[in-house]
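Record type: monomer structure entry
Structure origin: computed from sequence
Chain ID: A
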Amino acid sequence: YKKIFNEYGSKNTVITNKNIKHILEKDNINYFRINKTSSMVETLIRSKKLLSMKKNFFLTSCDCLGNFDKFSLRKLITTTYPDVVFFGFETSYMQSKMENSHSYLITKNKSVINIEVKGKPTFDKLGHAGFFWIKNGKIFSELNHFKKSKYYKKLQREPIIDDYFRFLLINKHIKASFIKLSNYLHLGSENEFLEFNYWNNYFKDYDK
């Protein structure tokens, strides 16, 4: 599911389908229900009307979390005026051995100029965390053009939101900056989940 954090709203919004809505039921969340889709991109397309009405919000499409300084983010937004802020992390030793598990940010100074989607890990690139700050939801207006593009048609896997943002970047439709995360945690693969449990239990025993 996609979870949208509106900076000025009192409630979060979860885009979900009827099969899992009952699992997420909470009073402090707005639910936007769509039919089950075959990909992240189809979810975005069906949610485009909702997203286009949002401004200054966070969107996440991944089972991850990470700490960042909100004042640094505000300074970045007010000095570089990006359309999107990506969040990057330094890969762990294990993550650096996992091919095609993460996307990687290609940066220059404070800007993101491209994304290697599900690329080969390298220590000189930040991994791309699965959430974004977005200035205006109207950036999703290019979704239909993206579906008709050569890039989309050549994909041999599920198209994900990273692919759409890469499409926007290489066609210079958006200006993007990035924030480096601290204490990043990603549970997207079985190996990462096992690693998390190992260290979690290790430090519990250590404290004893």
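Annotation 1: Residues 1-8 have pLDDT under 50 and may be disordered.
Annotation 2: Residues 117 and 162 are 6 Å apart (CA to CA).
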